[in-house]
């Protein structure tokens, strides 16, 4: 997606929206009735993992913000503002979906804390080849139920703007923009309480290439409004911020992702709006500030991380012979100044290379780095170290099945033969905490206070 030079002032309106929610942070985190069940599904065409997409988007946004600080005789190269891409499915593995309504009709959409737009595929969607302009059959792009805007009595087209988005794996979508009544959390969506409705600006995609799961019809972004398309001109926010603006819903949402099992391979977890779901957790929250992308401008849910708690495994008789020399290293790997992006659209964790290498070395047999895929691979039967992420002075531990992606639908082979390690090298990209870690916590996004709170769900 290309940003024109005029996008230098794109974020002013979104900053106002964030400021309007400040001071409305709840003194305590209440249990909410606005709870939506999530469904997990494997991405049908996983590609090589990378954290470069977030790094490129962050630097692109900073470049745009810096345009407003240029002197009159200074210029910006177009390539500095071009091809800022969004990510939902580019990391392979699982996607998490929930149900919403548009014009009272139900649709399943992917949720993504790393983007702001909400978009839906049109009933007239034209699927085209990613390599040419050849038209393919509509089912080739794998969407679920399609949105018929002509049948809606509440849809209003925005004729002055178009919608377009591209992704790092070659997927791209174009269409129109409009407003529609969006419902979330009601019984018709599978929710546990009274539903919420808001008139929301959305994209209606009409052409493109998409590697769909044949379940979801679009995407609902949960990030700060800064990342939304045409936010300056159209004066709108992402869905959760739209819901919070009315003042009746506390400006908080939370995620409790589940670990799919053989018995329930599509278990996804819960998304709660206005508080937390009524689920078991250790009851002791830690709070950390969300880091602005620049000055007071917020985009991603980026939080400070103290380091990593790493405990080597006790070798089993089967694997003792494979460990010729004792492994040495810090059991508490400090990473001063490290910020990590909370991203439900990412399956893996991307951490400093030296820490990832150390963790990989502790498996028995040890994990092996595959240059062809830029990932660590490990036998699914290996003995694993215990790994925790330290936030606010507290260690949040990863389950062994998540650390090795053993579960059904996980990145890699799902527990048979060789598994993809959930902890990978950050490289030149941003540090990311994906769903392999999120499944062990109750994550609270307190956008009213611009902070995140975490409570453990693992022992």
UniProtKB/TrEMBL annotation:
Taxonomic superkingdom: Eukaryota
Record's signal peptide: none
A GO-annotated cellular component: fungal-type vacuole
Peptidase A1 domain sequence ranges: 96-455
PROSITE patterns, per the entry: ASP_PROTEASE, PEPTIDASE_A1
InterPro entries documented for this protein: Aspartic_peptidase_A1, Aspartic_peptidase_AS, Pepsin-like_dom, PEPTIDASE_A1, Peptidase_aspartic_dom_sf
Active site: 112, 343
UniProt keyword list: Aspartyl protease, Hydrolase, Protease
SUPFAM superfamilies assigned: Acid proteases (SSF50630)
Protein name: Acid protease
GO biological process: proteolysis
Family to which the UniProt record says this protein belongs: Belongs to the peptidase A1 family.
GO MF: aspartic-type endopeptidase activity
Protein species of origin: Trematosphaeria pertusa
Keyword Hydrolase attached: yes
UniProt key word Hydrolase: yes
């Amino acid at each position: 997606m290309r940003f024109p030079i005029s996008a230098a002032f794109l974020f002013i309106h979104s900053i106002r929206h964030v400021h309007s929610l400040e001071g409305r942070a709840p003194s305590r985190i209440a249990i909410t009735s606005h709870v939506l069940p999530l469904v997990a599904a494997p991405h049908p065409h996983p590609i090589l993992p990378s954290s470069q997409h977030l790094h490129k988007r962050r630097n692109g946004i900073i470049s745009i913000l810096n345009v407003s600080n240029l002197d009159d005789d200074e210029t910006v190269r177009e390539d500095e503002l071009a091809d800022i891409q969004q990510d939902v499915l580019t990391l392979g593995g699982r996607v998490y979906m929930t149900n919403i309504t548009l014009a009272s009709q139900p649709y399943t959409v992917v949720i993504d804390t790393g983007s702001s737009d909400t978009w839906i595929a049109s009933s007239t969607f034209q699927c085209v080849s990613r390599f040419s302009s050849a038209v393919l059959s509509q089912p080739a792009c794998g969407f679920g139920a399609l949105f018929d805007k002509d049948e809606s009595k509440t849809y209003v087209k925005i004729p002055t703007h178009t919608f377009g988005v591209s992704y790092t794996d070659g997927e791209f979508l174009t269409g129109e923009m409009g407003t529609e009544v969006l419902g979330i959390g009601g019984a018709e969506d599978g929710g546990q309480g009274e539903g919420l409705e808001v008139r929301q600006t959305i994209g209606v995609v009409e052409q493109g290439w998409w590697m769909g799961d044949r379940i979801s019809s679009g995407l609902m972004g949960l990030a700060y409004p800064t990342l939304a398309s045409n936010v300056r001109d159209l004066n709108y926010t992402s869905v959760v911020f739209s819901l919070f603006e009315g003042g009746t819903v506390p400006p908080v949402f939370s995620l409790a992702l589940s670990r799919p099992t053989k018995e329930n391979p599509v278990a996804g977890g819960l998304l709660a709006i206005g508080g937390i779901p009524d689920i078991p957790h250790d009851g002791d929250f830690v709070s950390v500030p969300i880091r602005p992308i620049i000055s007071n401008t917020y985009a991603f849910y980026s939080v400070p991380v103290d380091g990593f708690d790493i405990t080597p495994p006790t070798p089993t008789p089967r694997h003792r012979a494979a460990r010729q020399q004792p492994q040495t290293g810090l059991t508490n790997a400090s990473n001063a100044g490290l910020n990590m992006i909370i991203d439900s659209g990412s399956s893996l964790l991307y951490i400093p290379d030296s820490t990832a290498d150390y963790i990989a070395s502790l498996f028995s047999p040890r994990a092996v780095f595959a240059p062809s895929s830029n990932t660590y691979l490990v036998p699914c039967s290996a003995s694993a170290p215990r790994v925790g992420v330290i936030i606010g002075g507290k260690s949040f531990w990863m389950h062994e099945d998540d650390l090795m992606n053993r579960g059904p639908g996980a990145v890699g082979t799902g527990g048979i033969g060789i598994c993809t390690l959930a902890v990978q090298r950050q490289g030149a990209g941003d540090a990311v905490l994906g769903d392999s870690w999120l499944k062990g916590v109750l994550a609270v996004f307190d956008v009213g206070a611009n902070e995140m709170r975490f409570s453990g769900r693992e022992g």
